[in-house]
Specification:
The chain is of the alpha+beta class and 198 residues long. It is built from 8 helices and 8 strands; from the N terminus they run ααββββββαββααααα. It has helices at 9-22, 27-35, 91-96, 117-126, 130-153, 157-168, 177-184, 188-197, and strands at residues 37-42, 47-49, 57-63, 65-72, 75-83, 87-88, 103-106, 110-116.
């Protein structure tokens, strides 16, 4: 099977800028990322990663919205939501290369740039300063995970929604209400009442 074309320098600009804002990229690292990343377009409603599989890629979201969710009997529980200008992966599966319980679904048509686990490990060895980039990224996403954990543990639904709007307000009209309610751990009816009040 023919290998897809890697990202062009123009296509890679948003990802390179994102990475450079974390820690300055050398020209060599920039060229490595251009030559070892690949564009991927995924239509709305598709599964980017399926539970039970090993996640071998991480993706930079040039455009679009995605969610992570797990299946609990007949329910889908949304565990995170992300959008333009961020990275997405089934992170435990990606790091440990083990099957995951998590699904990743597109909520809009998405334009992505993929980087494989194998190439990321090569990058670490070849250009050690990129480890600083990923360490800073890990710190940011750990703080995001802590914030999500805090929101879902609150008992007051209105407080949950206020915190959601504070951090994810730019997504409030891009994500179906049922997924927001699931993410916050409240009923759809409760969320509808809160939105109506505003």
């Amino acid at each position: 099977m023919k290998k897809p074309n890697h990202t062009s320098p123009e296509e890679a600009i948003p990802f390179l800028e994102f990475s450079n804002n974390l820690h300055p990229l050398t020209e060599a690292i920039s060229q490595f990322l251009i030559k070892n990343t690949y564009p991927k377009n995924v239509k709305k409603g598709k599964i980017l990663h399926k539970a039970g599989e090993i996640c071998t890629n991480m993706y930079f979201v040039k455009k679009g919205v995605l969610r992570g969710y797990v299946n609990d009997e007949s329910r889908e529980i949304t565990t995170w939501i992300t959008a333009d200008g961020e990275l997405v992966s089934a992170i435990c599966s990606f790091i440990l290369q083990i099957p995951t319980h998590e699904n990743i679904q597109t909520l809009e048509d998405c334009e992505l740039i993929s980087l494989s686990k194998v190439d990321l490990e090569r990058l670490y060895v070849k250009h050690p300063s990129f480890n600083i980039t990923v360490r800073k990224l890990t710190e940011i996403y750990y703080m995001h995970a802590e914030h999500r954990a805090y929101i879902v543990r609150l008992k007051n639904a209105e407080q949950k929604y206020q915190l959601f709007l504070k951090q994810y307000g730019h997504l409030a009209n891009r994500v179906p209400v049922k997924h927001i309610a699931s993410f916050l751990g409240i009923t759809l009816e409760t969320l509808s009442r809160l939105r109506a009040k505003r």
